[in-house]
Amino acid sequence: MSTPAPLIEMRGISKSFGAVKANEAVDLSVAPGEILGLLGENGAGKTTLMNVLFGAYAPDAGEILVQGRPVTINSSADALAAGIGMVHQHFHLAPRLSVLENLLIGIPGKSGRIDRAGGLARLDEIGRQHGLALDPDLPVSALSVGEQQRLEIVKALFRGARLLILDEPTAVLAPTEVDGLFSALRSMATQGLGIIFISHKLNEVRALTHRCVVLRHGRVTGRVDAPASTTSSEMARLMCGHEIVPPARGPSTPGAAVLILDGISTSRHSGMPLRAVSLAVRAGEILGIAGVSGNGQRALAEVISGIHAPDAGRMTIAGKIVSRFSPREVQALGLGRIPEDRMTTGLVTNLPLADSMVLPRIGTGAFSRNGLLRPDAIRAFAAEQIKAYDIRCPGPMTRAGALSGGNLQKALLARELAFDPKVLIVSQPTRGLDIGAARFIHEKFLAMRAKGCGIIVIGEDLEELLMLCDRIAVMYEGRIAGTLDSAEATIARLGLMMTGAEGRA
Amino acid sequence: MFRLEARTSTPAWFNLALPLLAIGTTLVLCSGLIALAGAGVIEAYGVMFSASLGDSYAITETLVRATPMIFTGLAVAVAFRAKFWNIGAEGQLLAGAVASCAVGAIPMPGPLAMLLMAVAGAAAGAAVALVPATLRVKFRVDDVVSSLLLNSVIFYALMALIEGPWKDSFSGYPISPPIEDSANFPVLLEGTRLHLGVVAAFLASPLIWFLIVRTTLGFRIRVIGENPEAARYGGIHVERVLISTALLSGALAGLAGVGEVGGVHFQVMSDISPGYGYSGIVVAMLARLNPLGVVPAAIFLAAVMTGAEAMSRATGVPAFLSDVIQGTALLAMLVALLFTAYRIRRVGTAK
A34, A36, A10, A37: which is closest to A23 by C-alpha? Predict the structure, then answer.
């Protein structure tokens, strides 16, 4: 494509936090109509760089040019004034206000009155232009995650953004929603907007972007001019500095069933309830649970984890019937659990990492005696796991929230696997993780499988499920729509079952 | 132009520096008021200091005054750790005072009386704290509002008692009958009011620290305060721990009332607490919710209170300055706490 004057140019951006150089002399530019991929592992400095561009941090050195003119961006208001919009991983929306009201927040109206008609017209126009239609009167709390993201994009366009930054936008989307997002982004690019697309998923980057910049340890380590014709493994090499080979899943001989669900139904539950779900996981087997999110996966995970008791049905762990459905009971029976949301259900971000790592077993003899903590044992356990799992942090007493997502996931994995669970249930095990960390997690699962642990992986990433799982069950509207052996499962077939079109027992 | 930037870590010396910074700022801000009242700033603070910490008698008086605030400060610190917003230490203190006074009025051997007074006072305080905690656990009632409003209920109940059935028939004033002489807490230093309760308060601080930092209950309190979701997922009974925290917090506030009855007033009157329960919030915040920090923080506020009266007599500055200093110290500390999470950075001006 032709190279007109860049929409935005960052020159020699450096930013340090204490001794850590998050960005070092980074150059980056985006032309009108260009979709730029920004790649890098967790902690490579992508988010810091974008926060500098969006005015959250002041750079220690370097300058930012908008259409050739140097600008100083000290706040998100400055960034918006310069035509830069950002869609964060966590949305900034007021859930009880309507779509239109959210759109108009912070927009000065005419003589103190909100310009509702003007807002409606623009919403409609933007929606039609890029396929981003939204019902203006729905409260945000009634929108799906994909629709909320759409609203964030519309908000940025509404405020006159000519450059849009999207920080891992696909991490929260179902596969069908990803297609919609991509066509909207392509439509925006053809109208001359610039887009910076941050993602770990290399196939997405290859499908969408025109050009890529790769960061590692805060520096630009590679530029890819033709992502579509560059292989994923080549890009992965640029990101990690070495080759990444997907782990091979060898044959296994599953043993007896270690987890059996028999006719489990739930009702008093937010989200999709379970309707007579029966499934079994055998020792040394990985069972995948596929499905579009919101089809009962959450209820399934919560029942198995002992968070919610079902209204009907029976669950057996390692031959013993679960009677009380408490987290402590299922854990005592040999169940390990890795929750979907690391930050909210897994860890206590403001306390030392060691505390999070012993949390579920604090009352057991390993970490306390007669109500008194054993601080040395707690610290020693955490230090041991930090070493064994190569968790990058200054030590067990580091605040958990200071760790990157990949290291947090390793810590959660360590805390469950240290006690040799007979069954392991994990949700979205590698969401938001970079290739290296994801690879590590996958290897651990396969190692546990070889040791005879039965594993349930609830996920939306079908490629990941196909790689890991011996069998894949598909959930649709609170039921198991069907189960496929890995040999007969394909993305196309699973995708069809996820829409409820095909069932197979 | 300046602006705030998120910190990745907080240096350890902040724990000491921030309260000192807050106190320093408070004294500077309040010096303006002293000047407005027409007194010399140095002179006024000088009188305040010498009257509260200047000689050994003054120090004992300050310690006696600090005692109830150590207990209420601990009560608030424990509760706030679990994010149980107990604003009701004042009412729990009053309930503890009433219960211990009722027990202390029963003739029995002194040591037994003192023990039972402490037990009754702690139980009464805990019972009062149970109300907002239960309302929150069962009905999701906001604990700030319920615990705060309960203070008025307890206060007027106490008034009704000492104006009515419990009125001391000998004096004729709206005060309760006194406790038995044998139940009066022993004085530790001849010629002062330094009583047994002061020692108890000083011992309570490390004990509560130990409980928070070294016991499984303390661990659970910290975890439910920081992340109740993760706590529940990890098998902690969040509601049960919250109730335990409330009972502990209320018992500590109740003990503040016990000390005032057994060691200072020997009976219950309407002004037995000049807001020690509310001061406990200031104390706990200045201490950054650390039980060990509660003692120096309470001594600071006590010194301000005793010093303010002497300053008022000597310079004519109203003793209300003590309340202003307390309030300002709380605000200054809340602002100072911002620096644990953020730092100020100088940036170039836009455009």
Answer: A10
